[in-house]
TrEMBL record:
Limits of the Transglutaminase-like domain: 555-626
Cytoplasm among keywords: no
SMART domains: TGc (SM00460)
Name listed for the protein in its UniProt record: Transglutaminase domain-containing protein
SUPFAM superfamilies hit by this protein: Cysteine proteinases (SSF54001)
Segments crossing the lipid bilayer: 12-29, 35-53, 65-88, 108-130, 137-157, 163-182, 194-214, 678-704
Transmembrane among keywords: yes
Keywords: Membrane, Transmembrane, Transmembrane helix
């Protein structure tokens, strides 16, 4: 290992002393001024601001350093401006607040205290760093500090033990160095290194053990762990925000691919086993009458009713197929109505119209709680036939009319809610036959007053609790609902059957052939699902060429893929037959494994499926992925009493649980979600103010060092550096040298496959071979040729790739060169 120079030792010493003393002073200010900031937050501030001052001092001769610093600060101000935060105004107000606060509790504002601490950090650390240049200045500073501590003692102003340890450690370090210079002049370097390494650690341990009280219990370090977790959460939030900003990401839930940034289908699918969220099955609402109603139908509600099948949680529904993926176009929305509630009303109307509302074989009540873990999204998950959704007391449902329920701010770990829903037995023969019977049903031709079965509207109907005030009969017989369902069905037919004009004709022909023997809409959908079941499931499908339609290529060329491919193909084939469909991405909850009654859901359970609209019933889910296609359509195999056999009662071997949440009453019309408190925004943004600055400054410094090295290099060395950079960019673009290729063969292949105008790569390789094996001295003209090729290559890559990807490659090169 290369030993450090004397200059490097001095830099290390100056920075360490500055942080040591600065931390002590700022901890004292935090206590004395009652800023109430966490200790670890101050430690992080002092460390990063001290490091930034040290790096600026190290490269202060370069004008680029100040340009990069200004650019980084400007970038941060711009990012925070996106959150409507005026940084300059906030710091100015915080500075004024610091003079007016005076420790008065009613005047305390956390984010102003935090901004004030950043100002104080700069004001304290900058002069302290400059004072470390001379041992005489350090000695004078130590004397002043000693006098100040004596004065504080006389004034009976309390100084924390950690402050005393830090300050005395600094003073002892300075004292030892003064003694080293006086008594060991012949071995200055040794004494400097020894004191630099040993003094701060020895004194911190020694003085800390003397001053610190003896405790019978070991230190738990909970404050360190908690603060570190908070910092990590803030870093993750900031990274996700920046990533979403650069990608144009809306923050809504979607299935991500390993090698694609755009909202296009395809690419490799890589799922980890990280737990995204957990699900807990809850007892139904604590209501005696509801319990009696369900028990009358044969349900044992002394125990928690488990869902019969895996639950499909919708996270992101899209309606517009582009030929490469799915987008969301504006569709018809019913005024003054939440879409998920209207879907439930349509289901109720359908069941009551049919007269089969009390058949236990067809429905099953359930209630689940969802708790976010690793998942970060603005999307709220729910399933079909959800009728009651409840959140924590300080949360409200966002006001949205569409099928997607989306918050304005990202929800993360700790966010939880629960909802009740009716699980439909999609695999029941009665249910299938009922959907077939709706083939010629239209709301316009079947007015509500003539469609409902009178005997199907008992006062104790099982669904009454969703609308207890007006009752089932009240809203099902209203002309308002009749008009809503009719107009909505017409628009669904228009909005959810659209296909791109460039969709190949053979896709339409295939849809016709698949469904030619299917008499009803439901049978057509089942035929398409069965056809796709013959395809191969894989997480690493072949890439779809850019000039190909995704579905066409999947159906006729690729014939393998994962859930997004199967769901998209089924949706498009159904639309070819004029059947309204929509594409759904979400999460499938499997109840086979639990941990203490809680069901963890990992990233591997992210999934895509299709919902098809059948007028008279509503949206019906279809899962065409071979690995999942029986999940949503399993028959519960319940024997009905009407058949002459004894009706069976669902058996649940699960202990009774209490709801994890205390739900408030939620109105159908809710106000917009309150903005996240400013305190959280400040912690996320300003507590990490130094990180982007340091990163950009570091990248800029590395770039300057590389340019300087390139400028000073002699011709052969310069040629080597330029060729190394050229090969790096070629490799990143996918033009790597094959093992069996010679350098000249490789160069010729590059010239054929990659169009770099004006200069040939073969000429560049010839230069390398001449000086590498022929002892040739590279000329100035040859250097210019290499530089010209590199410029042309960068221009070509910029044209082929996005500007963002090129910058990413450039940063990667600087870090690994």
């Amino acid at each position: 290992m290369k030993s450090m120079t004397n200059e490097q030792w001095q830099t290390y010493e100056h920075l360490t002393k500055t942080i040591l003393l600065g931390l002590g002073i700022l901890l004292f200010i935090n206590t004395y001024s009652k800023l109430k900031l966490p200790t670890m937050l101050i430690v992080v501030e002092v460390f990063f601001i001290g490091l930034m001052i040290d790096q600026i001092n190290k490269y202060k001769k370069y004008i680029q350093t100040y340009l990069l610093l200004g650019a980084a600060i400007g970038l941060l101000i711009g990012v925070l401006a996106c959150f409507h935060i005026d940084v300059i105004k906030c710091f100015y107000e915080s500075f004024q607040w610091l003079g007016q606060y005076g420790g008065i509790e009613d005047r305390y504002v956390f984010y102003k205290a935090f901004c004030s601490s950043i100002i104080l950090n700069i004001v304290v650390l900058l002069p302290l760093y400059l004072l470390q240049k001379s041992i005489k200045l350090q000695s004078g500073l130590s004397a002043i500090i000693l006098i100040g501590m004596i004065g504080l003692t006389i004034k009976k102003i309390e100084v924390g033990k950690e402050v005393v340890v830090l300050v005395l450690s600094y003073m002892a370090w300075v004292l030892i160095q003064v003694g080293s210079q006086l008594n060991q002049r012949q071995n200055k370097q040794y004494s400097k290194k020894a004191s630099t390494f040993l003094v701060p650690f020895a004194l911190l341990i020694g003085i800390g053990s003397i001053i610190g009280p003896a405790s019978p219990k070991p230190i738990s370090w909970q404050f360190v762990i908690k603060t570190a977790q908070q910092v990590a959460e803030s870093i993750n939030d900031l990274a996700a925000s920046i990533q979403g900003f650069t990608r144009g990401d809306t923050g809504e839930f979607q299935i991500r691919f390993s090698d694609q940034d755009k909202m296009e289908l395809g690419g490799k699918l890589e799922n980890s086993e990280e737990v995204l969220l957990t699900v807990e099955v809850l007892p139904l609402l604590e209501n005696t009458r509801i319990k009696q109603l369900y028990e009358k139908l044969g349900y044992q509600l002394k125990q928690t009713p488990m869902p019969k099948n895996p639950t499909y949680l919708k996270g992101n529904v899209r309606n517009s197929y582009t030929g490469r993926g799915w987008d969301r176009e504006k569709v018809y929305e019913v005024e003054d109505e939440q879409e998920y509630q209207l879907e439930y009303k349509e289901l109720l109307y359908s069941l009551y119209r049919s007269g089969i509302n009390t058949a236990q074989e067809l429905f099953h009540p359930a209630s689940i709680a969802i708790n976010f873990e690793k998942l970060r999204t603005k999307s709220l998950f729910y399933t079909n036939a959800t009728y009651d959704m409840r959140l924590e007391e300080d949360e409200k449902l966002p006001s949205t009319k569409g099928v997607n329920i989306t918050y304005k701010r990202t929800k993360k770990k700790g966010f939880n809610y629960h909802f009740s829903f009716v699980e439909m037995n999609l695999g029941s023969q009665i249910f299938k036959d009922y959907l077939r019977s709706l083939e010629n049903f239209h709301y316009q031709e079947n007015p509500i007053e003539t469609s409902l079965v009178p005997t199907a509207l008992p006062e104790d109907a099982v669904f009454w609790q969703a609308y207890p005030q007006q009752g089932i009969a009240g809203f099902l017989t209203s002309t308002k609902l009749e008009k809503q369902l009719y107009e909505r069905a017409v628009h669904i037919k228009e909005d959810y059957t659209v296909l791109p004009s460039h969709l190949p004709a053979r896709v339409y022909e295939l849809a016709q052939n698949i469904t030619k023997d299917s008499p009803t809409t439901y049978d057509k959908l089942e035929a398409i699902k069965a056809y796709l079941a013959q395809f191969t499931y894989t997480k690493i499908p072949e890439a779809v060429p850019k000039d190909e339609d995704f579905v066409d290529y999947f159906l006729f060329e690729q014939k393998e893929g994962y859930c997004t491919s199967f769901a998209t193909a089924m949706a498009v084939l159904a639309r070819c037959m004029d059947i309204p469909t929509r594409y759904v991405e979400g999460i499938v909850v499997d109840y086979n494994q639990s941990v203490n009654g809680v069901y963890p859901v990992t990233e591997s359970k992210m999934h895509a499926w299709v919902e098809a609209y059948i007028e008279g019933y509503g949206w019906v889910p279809f899962d065409s992925t071979p690995q999942f296609n029986n999940y949503s359509a399993q028959n519960w195999n319940v024997t009905l009493a009407s058949t002459g056999a004894e009706a069976s009662t669902p058996e649940i071997n699960m202990p009774e649980q209490s709801p994890a949440l205390v739900p408030p009453v939620i109105e159908e019309q809710v106000k917009e979600e309150n903005l996240v408190p400013w305190i959280i925004l400040w912690i996320i943004g300003l507590s990490l103010v130094i990180l982007p600055t340091l990163f950009l400054t570091y990248i800029g410094i590395v770039a300057l060092q590389y340019k300087r090295k390139l400028r000073k290099a002699v011709t052969n060395e310069k040629a080597k550096l330029l060729l190394k950079e050229i090969l790096f960019y070629l490799g990143k673009r996918g033009y790597e040298k094959q093992e069996e290729e010679s350098m000249l063969e490789y160069a010729k292949r590059i010239d054929q496959e990659l169009s770099v105008k004006e200069v040939l790569f073969e000429e560049m390789i010839t230069i390398y071979l001449n000086y590498r094996y022929g002892q040739h001295q590279v000329t100035g003209e040859e250097i210019k040729g290499l530089e010209a090729y590199l410029v042309c290559l960068k221009r070509t890559l910029t044209e082929e790739l996005s500007r963002l990807n090129y910058i990413r490659f450039k940063i990667h090169f600087l870090l690994v060169k």
